[in-house]
Amino acid sequence: MWCTFVELAALTWIVGVQGHVIPAAVPAVVTRFEDYDPHPQYSYAYDVQDSITGDSKNQYETREGDVVKGSYSLIEADGTRRVVEYTADPVNGFNAVVHREPAVVAAPVPAVVAAPVPVPAAPIGIAPAPLPPAPAVAVGIPPPHHHFSCALINVQPKWLSTR
């Protein structure tokens, strides 16, 4: 035990003497100045009219400096169109006006029904007798390929057996 302690102490002293401290790298500070636009401007719009899904919506928005104006519309679940017109500026904040337009329902077109065409009845014939059902095929686990017996076998060493 004493030898193990001495070896461990010697190894610790060797590593401590030979160990070097490597200073950590200091990350470089990158400063990036963003261009400031005192009068930002943008404008965008989109319009969706999908005849397959019935989706109908649109939006447009413009910005001139600190004033944003726009509107959007969509079809509600009840078929009415909701139109929202909004403005935002530093003086009045965000203001929205919501309008609802009634649903546009197409006038029903009367369906033209043709007179039924008489169809002659099929002749009554004699059908052949149905076939008997096929016998059921049993599908199961195949029998084992090896034989195993759990019978107890009494085996004694020769030195215990009587002659």
UniProtKB/TrEMBL annotation:
Protein's name in the database: Uncharacterized protein
Domain of life: Eukaryota
GO molecular function: structural constituent of cuticle
PROSITE patterns: CHIT_BIND_RR_1, CHIT_BIND_RR_2
Signal peptide: 1-19
Pfam families: Chitin_bind_4 (PF00379)
InterPro entries linked: CHIT_BIND_RR_consensus (IPR031311), Insect_cuticle (IPR000618), Insect_Cuticle_Struc_Prot (IPR051217)
Origin species: Trichogramma kaykai
Keywords: Cuticle, Repeat, Signal
